[in-house]
Amino acid sequence: MMSEIKRQYVMSEDNTPVGVIIDIATFERIESILEDYGLAQFIHEADDEEPLDRSEALKYYKKIQGSA
Q: What CA–CA distance (Å, rounded) separates 60 from 58?
């Protein structure tokens, strides 16, 4: 179950929301979820190749992340 994300809105002068502030722990959880999802996609997209295990996918992801 996903816990509620505590957030604060950044508002423009005309009171339009333009941004969100979240605590660092929440940001790090979101970042971890996104990285895990990306790794899973790399593993599943290797249809023509032998599937990568988690450690190989992580090495590959870090390699391409550094080149971006």
A: 5
66 or 28, which is more confident: 28
- Give the amino acid at 16: T
Nearest to 38, CA basis, from 7, 6, 63: 63
Residue at 64: amino acid letter: I
What digits encode the pLDDT tens for the residues 8-61?
Answer: 999 999 999 999 999 999 999 999 999 888 888 877 776 666 777 888 888 888
Contact criterion met (CB below 8 Å) for 41 and 58: no
Side-chain half-sphere CA neighbours of 29 within 13 A: 10
